[in-house]
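Re: your question from the hallway

Yes, I did run it. Sequences:
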Amino acid sequence: MDKDIFTKLLRERGQRFTKERFVILQKALSYDGHFDPETLYLQIRKTGSKASRASVYRTLSVLRECGVIQQVAKTEHGTVYERTYGHRHHDHMLCVQCGDILEFYSEELEKIQENICKKQGFQGSSHTLEIRGYCKKCRKKKK
Amino acid sequence: MDKDIFTKLLRERGQRFTKERFVILQKALSYDGHFDPETLYLQIRKTGSKASRASVYRTLSVLRECGVIQQVAKTEHGTVYERTYGHRHHDHMLCVQCGDILEFYSEELEKIQENICKKQGFQGSSHTLEIRGYCKKCRKKKK
DNA sequence: ATTGTAATTGAGACTCATTCTCAATTATAA
DNA sequence: TTATAATTGAGAATGAGTCTCAATTACAAT
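Structure:
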C-alpha cells in the first residue's frame, strides 16, 4: 500500500501520518499469512527501524478499523491478524483424522451471513467458519 | 450430570473425584447460557461452597477436554464457556468492542454448508462460525 | 520558513486473566 | 490403617495489552 493512500486513510480519521505508523503498516502488509503484534514489534526492532510496542498495538487497531488487516483469532498466546488487502476471504474444512485443511469459498454463504447481521443490527467485519469432519481420503480409509 | 458419571470420567483420565471439582462441575452445568471463570468462581464463594480460583481454572480445562463444556470465545474480557449437553447448535456473533456475544441459528446456513461438504466429498461432523464486528449498541457509540 | 498547537510517541507503570509454585491436605489402592 | 500420588489454595509470577505523561513532531496558519 502506498504512502499517499495511507495518509489519506488517516486524514479521513483526523489522524496524522508518521514514520512509525508507516513502518508498522509496511511490516503488517509484508506477511502473507498470520502474524501477531509481538512478532511484528520484534521484527521492526531487528531491522533497525523504530516503533514502540505501544505504537504497534495502537497502529494495528487503526489498521483493523480501516479494514487493512483483520483479527483472525484470539488464542492463549495473543491476538492473530492477517492482512485483508490482496487476500481473498475463504473458510476452512479441517479433517480431524489427517489434519488436512481445505479452503473453500461460497458467495451464497457470505450473502446469508450479511443478511443475518443486518437483521440483528450487527456490523460484521470478519468471520471465521471452520467445518470439522473427515476428508474424502479418510472417509475411504474408514470403510 | 451425576456424581458417578463424573467420577468415571475422571477415572478414565487417571484423576480423582474431589468436592471442589464436583462443585465446579455443578455450577458450570447450572448456566443455561454463557459463563466465564471469574463469575463462576465468585458465585461459588457466595453460595458458601469453597474452591479456589486456581481450581476453577484447572477444572474448567478438564471439563472442556471431556466435552462437558466448550469454549465459546476468547474476548478482551476473558474466556467464555457454555455447556455442551442439552444445547442446540448455534453460531455466534462477537462484538469486538464490548465483548458481547449474540447467538443465532440459520437453517439456510446449515443446509448450504451440507451442500458444500457434499460437493467436496467431505463428511462434516461439526462446525464453528464466529462473526466478529460491532453490535448495535457499540455502533451507535462509535458515531 | 516560523510558529502555535494538537496529535503522537515511547518508556515503563499498570491492569487483569490466567498459570505456576509448593507446602499442606486428601483420595484411593494396598 | 497406611503409603503415596494427586489435589488444593494462597499468593507470586507471567504475559498480553492498555494507560500515563512529558517530550517530540506533523502540519495548518501565518
